[in-house]
Amino acid sequence: MSEGDVKEETSCIPGYVCYGSDWDISSSISTPNNLSVVQCTNDKKTFCVRPANEDICSDLTVTFTSGECRASSFSFTESISVDFLNTSEIKQSKPTGLPAEITTTLPDLPKCKNLSVSNYTCSEKHNPNVTMKLSELEPFTDYNCTGLILQNNTSINKTTPSVHVRVDCDLTITYTKNDLTSTSTEFSWTTTSKNCQQELPNLHKLSYDCICDGQKPGKGMKPTRPDGGKCSFNNLKPFTDYTCRVQFKYKTYMSNSSDVKLKTNPGIPDPVNGLQLHVQEHNMIKVVWQKSNDFKGEQKKYKVRINKAGEKQQKTEILVSNHEFVFKDLSYSTTYEVEVTAYNGEHESIPKTGNISTFYNDKAVIGFRVFLIILTSVALLFVTYKFYIQKLRKSTNDVNDDMELEAIYENRQSPGLRHKEAH
């Protein structure tokens, strides 16, 4: 075998120095540092040598020996450029935040100077025709990125292996303010991120959905910033617990919700129904009503007020827990106005009112009648007594008159006659 029987092949295995011959040269190849020799898969007569990293950017000499005759040996010397770099040995760390950065570690090439990787180009996994710079990557999106290998800032037309990149920004929603009424809420939040805070204000495709139990999606207050916002709900029920939540969306990605628990303020209680007024014992008024359907607050009590009809003075007010009350010791034969409201500790319902009149004072009438009877009896006794006295005086006067007449008669007779009659 002579030197002319061996030819250099360039299309067998990329990154290898390959030689072909009609001779079986598998045992004739001698390499520095005992580099391994592999047979070309598609050409059984071609054998290849992979340069070591220390051979890159230098010359590689491969020696062929014909049989055992060292004198007939010959060598091929190849200039191993950086193109022989095995890119599979390049180590790349995926970015974990935004702005995205890929840290690249090249294999140790002691004879190569000023090698670097730059100008990463990325394309969306599901839209490969759209390319962008590494600094333009968006969160929650899958990309494939490759970097350009440079030597002395000049491309060697070789790229790094494709690396899959996806940055899921760990957004944290913190509720900062909650304004409540009895039927509405407006809450605010701020958004922070451990790995995307620098780019967060620029994520204009980031939007939010507000949801409360049983309610239609809330209306976001415009403008809603990427790093926070406000949301409002109306038509809520008073004094009711709600779980509201905020979900952020980025393009087709939707996060888990971040919940906030709230309770609406007390509202106006439902009014009482079925108000009934009854007079008892002539000057007592019993007030009865049906329970309120919904107090819309903490307490469940009633305020009962009474006042003489037509008077503007302050009404007597009683706070009760049951749904009836009796006003006692009222004025007789008087019309009263009664008012009942439901009370929850903060608000009163629309009042229900009614008028009713007490009866006459039956006890006074009975006493007066007794007094009249006693007075009549006393008068009758007095008249009877007067009549008796008069009659007694008349009898006494008649007796006295007879005695006086007799005395006069006796005095007018002659002494002799009186003496004779005496005998």
Can you walk me through this structure?
The protein has 2 helices and 29 strands. The chain has helices at 362-412, 415-422, and strands spanning 6-9, 17-21, 29-30, 37-39, 46-49, 58-66, 69-80, 91-93, 103-105, 115-124, 127-133, 143-151, 154-159, 163-165, 171-180, 185-193, 206-212, 219-220, 228-233, 241-250, 253-254, 258-263, 273-280, 284-290, 301-308, 316-320, 324-327, 335-343, 352-357. The chain is mostly beta strands and 423 residues long. The strands form 8 sheets. Strands 10, 11, 12, 13 and 14 form a 5-stranded antiparallel sheet that branches. Strands 1-2-5-4 form a 4-stranded antiparallel sheet, with no helix packed on it. Strands 15-16-19-18 form a 4-stranded antiparallel sheet, with no helix packed on it. Strand 6 and strand 7 (69-80) form a beta hairpin. Helices cover 14% and strands 42% of the residues. Residues 417-423 have low confidence and may be disordered.
Task: Supply the key terms.
29 strands, 5 domains, Immunoglobulin-like, mainly beta, 423 residues, four-stranded antiparallel β-sheet, five-stranded antiparallel β-sheet
Q: What is shown here, in short?
A:
The chain has 423 residues and is mainly β.
- Domain module count: 5
- Say which CATH homologous superfamily of the largest domain is assigned: Immunoglobulins
Major sheet: size, sense and barrel closure? 5 strands, antiparallel
Radius of gyration: 61 Å
Assess the beta-strand content as a share of residues: 35-45%
Give the low-confidence spans.
417-423
What kind of oligomer do you see?
single chain
Alpha-beta classification = mainly beta
Helix content: 10-25%
Determine and state the CATH class of the largest domain.
Answer: Mainly Beta
Mean pLDDT, rounded to whole units?
Answer: 87
Number of strands: 29
What CATH calls the topology of the largest domain is Immunoglobulin-like
Tell me the distance between the termini: 229 Å
- CATH architecture assignment of the largest domain: Sandwich
Judging from the principal axes of the Cα atoms, what is the shape? rod-shaped
